[in-house]
Amino acid sequence: MKYTFIKLFICLSILAFSFQDAFAQDGSSEATVQEEDRSKIKFNGLGRAILSQTGIGGDILNSDSSTVENNTDGEFLLDLAINAYPNKNTEVQSILRLRNEFGGFFGAGVSVEVRELWIRGVIAEIMKYRVGDMDLVMSPYTLFNSPEDGSINEPMVFQPQKQVIDYEQFYTDDNTRRLQGAKVDFGLDFARVLDDLDINAFATRIRGTDFFTTPTRFVSGGQAKFTTQTFDDSLGIKADVGLNLVHTFDDLQSGNANTGIRNTVYSVDFDVTVMEKTDMSVHLTGEAGMSNLATAERITNADGDRENVTLTEEDDSFLEVGATLKLKKQNISVSASFVDIGPDFFSVGAQSKRIDYTAEKSFYNRIGTDRGIRQPGLFDLTRDRSLYTFSISDRLMAYDPRYANTMPYGRATANRQGIKAGVEYGQAGESIHARVDAAFLKELRGQGTFELKNFTLVRASADFNIHQLAGLKKKLKATVGLQLESTSRGGQEIEKVDLNSNLIELGLEAELFSKFDFLVGAKLLQAEGQEYIPFIQNFNDVQDFPGAYIADDTESLIGVGFKYEFKEGIYLTLQYNTYSSELGGDNPNNYDLNQVFVLYNMKF
Fold first, then answer.
1. Which of 4, 271, 353, 436 is spaced 20 to 30 Å from 119 by Cα?
2. What is the mean pLDDT of the chain?
3. CATH numbers and ranges of domains, the chain
C-alpha cells in the first residue's frame, strides 16, 4: 500500500505540472503555431488520476477463504482533444486517450486509443453537417437515454464517481445517445403562420458484422420541428410541434447472417401554449405515435436470387397527453397527464437502459463458498463503470424491480396505462428547489395470467441552499431524495404480487474554507415482498417465468469526504464509503463493502 500511494503522488504531480504548463501557455497550442495560424489548432482535454482500496466483510465470508478481502486499483488517464479548423466553415476534433493502470509503470498496462473523432461544418451557409461521433436525442419514445436506476437526487459526496461514469459513457444532461455516423440539419424562417422550421436527419451504424452470423446494424431517422407564430396576442396562443422518425434495421447483405430485425417508430409531439400571461401560463403537451417490430430472413428464391422475407411482425401505439400550469409569481408549476402505451410497443432507441445488470462487476463479482454472482447494489450503481453502457439493445434488458418496477425502461415502458402528476417549486440554484412526481399505472395485458399488475410510484427531491436562506457567506447545501414504489396483483396464490420498496437519499455540502468542502451523504434502500420477472427472449417475447423474486432486503451506503476545487473543473477529493447489504434475518449471505478513494480531476 505504501508504494501504491507513492505512485499516486507521482501521477498527481505530473497532472499538476501539466495543468500549470497548459494554462501558462493559454491553451498550449499557441506555443507551436504561428501568430496568423493560432485559430486553426486548439488543444484541450481532461486528465484524471484515481486510486481506490475496496474491502469486503460480513457473514458471507465466515466460510469463504478464497475471496481476497482487500483490493487496490486505480488509473492515470489523459484525454487530449485536438481541434483543427481547416477553414472558417469546417472543424475537426480528435481525442487521443493515454491510460495507465496503477501498478503498470514502465510501459506495462499502458493503452493508447482514439476516444473520439468527428468533423463538422456548414455547406453554402445553409446546411450544417457532422460526420463521425455524435450525441443524438429526439423524444422520450423514439431516441432517448433515460436516467439510471437507483438515483433520485444524488448527494454531492457520490457525484464525483458518477461524473466519471457519465464522462466514460458519453452521458449528458440532455439524455442524448452516443452514436457514430453522419447527420445534417438546416432551418427555414417563414413570414406567415409558421415562425421557423428545423429539420435534421441522421444515419448511424451501431454494430458491425462479424462476417458470419451477426449482420451490420444501422439506426437512421430524422426530426422536423416547427414553431407557429402567435395566433392571439391577448392570450399568447402558439404551438411547438415535432415530427419524429427513427428506423433500426439489420443489413442481411453483410456477412452470412440469415435473420435480422427491423424496428420503426414514428411520433408527433407538441407543446401548445394556451395562455401566456405575465403571472401565469397554461400549456397542453404530449406525444403520440406507433412502432413496428419485425424479424426478417434472407432466403434464396426460385431464380437463385437472395431476398428478405418477413417472419414475424408486431405493431402497437402509444399516447401521452397532459397539461401544465405555471404560476410565475409563486414560482410553482403543476402538471398532469394520461398515458397509454401498448403491450407490443417497442423502441430500440428509447427502451435501452444505461445499466446492464448482467455485466461483470469490477468489485467482487463472485463471493461466497459457492462463488455465486453478487447481485448489484447501491454501491455498484454509484461507482462501477463496468455496469454502464451506451449501447443500444435489440431486446428488453434485465432490470432490478427494487430500484425501478413501474417504469423500468423509462417513459417508453410498454404495457402501461394510467395517470401521472407533478408539482415543482423554484428553480435550480435558488434557495429552495423542490419537486414531487407521482404515477398511478396498471398493465394493459397480463403476463402469464389474466390478472393485471397495479403500480404506484412517488418520487420527491429537494435542494436547500441554506447559505442563501440564512445569508451566510460560505456555501451550505442540503439535498433530499425519496422514492416510494409499490406493485400489486391479485388472483390465486401463485399469481399474487406484492412488492414494496423505499429509497432515500440525504446529502450535505458545507464549505469550510474557500473552495474546500466537507461532504457527507447516505442512500438507504428497503425492499420487501414478491414479484414475478419474466424471462424475455426472441425479440421481446415472454419465454418463461423463473421462480418468484422474493425481496427482504435492506441496503445502506454512507459516504464522507473532502473536496478542494482549484478552479472550475479542476478538483481533488478524498472520500470514504461504507456499504451494507442485509438480505433479511440471519441470512448467511449478508456482506459489507468499504472503499477509500482519491480522485484528481482536471479539465483544461
1. 353
2. 89
3. 1-53+74-125 (no CATH), 146-599 (2.40.170)
